[in-house]
Amino acid sequence: MFRACPFHWLTGKPCPLCGLTRGLCALGKGHWSQAIHFNALSPLGLVLLLSLFWNAPWHKRLWTCGIAAFAIYGVCRIALA
Amino acid sequence: MFCDRCGTQVNAEQQFCPNCGQSFAGPPANSGAAPPPAWTPPTVVQVSAGHWIGAGWDLVKADMGAYVLATLIFFLLSGVPLIQGALIAGFHIYTIKKMTGRRADFGDLFKGFNYFIPTLVAMLLIGVFTMIGTVFCIIPGLVVAAALKFTYLFIVDKRMDFWPAMQASHAVVKQDYFGFTMFLILAFLVNVLGLLCCVVGLLVTFPLTIAAITVAYKEIVGFDQRTIDAL
Q1: How high is the pLDDT of residue B69?
Q2: Domain span at residue A34?
Q3: A23 in a domain, yes or no?
Q4: Residues 151-190, chain B: which have Cβ within 8 Å of A?
Q5: DSSP three-state, residue A74
Q6: Which of B76, B110, B144, B211 could form a disulfide with B56 if both were Cys (CB 3.0 to 4.6 A apart)?
Q7: Domain tally for chain A?
Q8: CB-based contacts of B118, cutoff 8 Å, min separation 6
Q9: Residue B16, SS3?
Q10: What is the share, in percent, of chain A residues with pLDDT greater than 70?
């Protein structure tokens, strides 16, 4: 599989966003379990991206929470791997 | 230094621009024309990504055929290494002319080569900075790319060299890192949609992105009157 993440390339560990591209592609095909296997938060990533098409004042809060969720997930994924 | 009229890079000892013939003799002592005030970054910036993208779409829609053809030329030439910066600058010039109601032709796409050295160095530096940011888990790279996306416009519009232009772009974006990064991601998503339309959608979404950035620049910074006159 194509590896674009320099963090993964340098450290050999997945960064919090690793697997998100593959996860989103899997979601596009409707393969939920596969998407969650690549990155458990891919549905959240999809929501964050789609939310940009709305002109809304709650973007900043949604994205802050989303990025925090990804960071926590990423740390746990490295720690538990 | 750069020619005031056409932007060509010239040696300090040259008295006339080799490209357009503009004289560089110092201004007469009592010409009365005050030098233009130095540019100062705005203190309040309102990011309206949706509005900019919409305005960019209106621009492209109004002249779809020409933009598609211009983008096709751009993509074909993008294969040549080291000239992408000049090409993007040329695309901005083309869009500026459209926005100010002038007749833009395909020759304008190559006017970015008048700023070849600054756009080249800017392109390489933006690439390196974005790459370094990307190492820290992508998001810093996006912020860096967002912070520097007005660089080419400052080069062609304000006649800045690469480093002041990058600083100026950053000075604008730092008023609202979050908003400008969201603008970048939204523009990226629009291009993904273009890609999904059998790739040819890119021929519309790419000029839309450039036009949206130019609209944003016009609303936040405003075009230099000398640029509008000279183009």
Answers
A1: 93
A2: 15-80
A3: yes
A4: 178, 182, 185-186, 189
A5: helix
A6: B211
A7: 1
A8: B9, B155, B160, B161, B162, B165
A9: strand
A10: 96
Q: What whole-number distance in Å separates Cα of residue B33 and Cα of residue A29?
A: 65
Contacts of A60 in chain B (CB under 8 A): 178
Q: Quick check: is A26 in a domain?
A: yes
Measured between beta carbons, the chain B residues lying within 8 angstroms of A17 are 137-139
Q: Which of B136, B138, B186 lies nearest to residue A52, judging by beta carbons?
A: B186
Which two structure tokens, joined as six digits, stand for B65?
């055929």
List phi, psi (to 5°) of B2.
-125, 145
pLDDT digits (tens, 9 = 90+) for A29-63: 999 999 999 999 999 999 999 998 887 778 889 99
Residue bearing tokens 């888990």: B137
To the nearest whole percent, how much of chain B has pLDDT over 70?
89
Alpha helices in chain B (DSSP H): 49-62, 64-77, 84-99, 116-135, 139-147, 151-157, 162-173, 177-196, 202-220, 225-230
Q: How large is the ipTM?
A: 0.80
CA B134 – CA B37 distance, rounded (Å): 37
For the record, the structure tokens of A37 come out as 């296997």
Length of chain A: 81
For chain B, give every domain's residue range.
50-230
Task: Give the residue-averaged pLDDT of B36-49.
Answer: 80
